[in-house]
Amino acid sequence: MGNLMVRSQSGGIRASNVSSRIALLVILVSLCGCASVRDWLPSPPSFGWLPSWAGGSKKLPPLADIRDSVISVQWTASAASPKLFMFSPSVSERVIFTAAHDGTINAIEEQGGKSVARIDTKAKLTAGVGAAENLVVVADTRGQVLAFDAAGRSLWKTPLDGEILASPVVSQSTVVVRTADGRLFALNRADGKRRWVFTRATPPLTLRTGASVTINRGIIYAGFPAGKVVAVELESGRPVWEATISLPRGSTELERVADISGVPVFDDTRVCAAVYQGRTGCVETLNGNALWTRDISSSDGVAVDGKNLYVADTDGNVNALDKTSGTTVWKQDKLVKRDLGTPIIVKGRILVGDRAGFVHAIAPDSGELVGRIATDGSRVMSLIANGDRAVVQTERGGVFAIAVR
Predict the structure, then answer these.
(1) What whole-number distance in Å separates Cα of residue 212 and Cα of residue 222?
(2) Kind of pairing, strands 369-374 and 380-386?
(3) Which of 134, 237, 275, 302 gives 196 a disulfide partner, CB atoms 3.0 to 4.6 angstroms apart?
């Protein structure tokens, strides 16, 4: 959603469309070798959204009326404040789990939105939730991965030597955790013991994001700095291939930030991703060979259906590209400057959230806006598909189930 933090090896800051003030702070931190940018910012530290003095409260363009919206709010619930971290819900056994910085995990019935359980982790959380089959996993400010059962009983706690901003991913026997410096840790699902760690070199400046990974057929797909997608064996941590979606461009380190800041999408024979200050494209699942790339920059992820790839670019245009060739099918330009997030697909509709708390629905064949709902007026922090509905978690901690017709 453009909520980026440029991270140097000595510190970092998050910014939307990286304004000149943000760039200056990053450069100063890089030069002075400060441990963190936190001292330069208003309290609390800007781990999440763009501060108002950096342009975060600019007036948004007006929206055209939509008479017969194909989406509607089914129910609402609440989580505590994320405190500028990015949290995404997870669904397991017909229960939606949400987390917040104050250490609470809320279990919500997917039908009706009733809260059925509340877990107090007794920690300050930075990421979550990963959930599957009576296992709920989050991460805290001390770099610890915390696992609970659905009733709230603590199962295990594993310290990792790194900050964790991405939601853990729970597979059949393994929990995969990504740290902010790009390392991948595989933990035993039963007891949290470390199985392996995958690491690779990173450039001097990178985007600080909460992007996690995709797991399919025993392979982990992860996006990295310098426009790289890496495939890693889930069982062993052995790299299978590394592909380049987009090479860095520019004469300065800041201009050469070209990172995949969303989660790569697996689609049968291809893996697709978008690169900030770079390109959008797909590579072959088997060997990572490039299939196509387009000069479309995005600070978020992509969505893929039977025909097209959908991506919101850094200007706020929603683009539909033929997933086989990369040619443009349509471009929706009525949401520019709204700082859009990663699109999702629910019941054949393209849904995308913005920083004013709206969720927009787009027809996949024409690109026409066919629906809109308002949440609580704060940024749509995450938007996930849950069967025939979508689930939203906002910056203020609102949780909304969206029905699609």
Answers:
(1) 7
(2) unpaired
(3) 237
CA 218/CA 199 separation, integer angstroms = 18
Predicted confidence (pLDDT) per residue in 346-391, tens digit: 999 999 999 999 999 999 999 999 999 999 999 999 999 999 999 9
What the block records as the tokens of 239 is 């790299």
Query: Burial letters for 105-121: b for 16+ Cβ neighbours within 10 Å, e otherwise?
Result: bbbbbbeebeeeeebeb
Which residue in the block uniquely carries the two structure tokens 């992509």?
302
What single letter denotes the amino acid at residue 107? Answer: A
pTM: 0.88
DSSP codes of every residue in 118-152: EEE-SS-EEEEEEEETTEEEEEETTSEEEEE-TT-
Dihedral sign (CA 229, 232, 237, 239): negative
Angle at alpha carbon of residue 167, lines to 183 and 153, rounded to 5°: 115
DSSP state of 352: E
Which residue type sits at 165?
L
Summarize pLDDT for 182-230 with one digit per residue, the tens: 999 999 999 999 999 999 988 888 888 889 999 999 999 999 999 999 9
Q: Which amino acid is at 67?
A: R
- Amino acid at residue number 374: A
Residues 6+ apart with CB under 8 A from 252: none
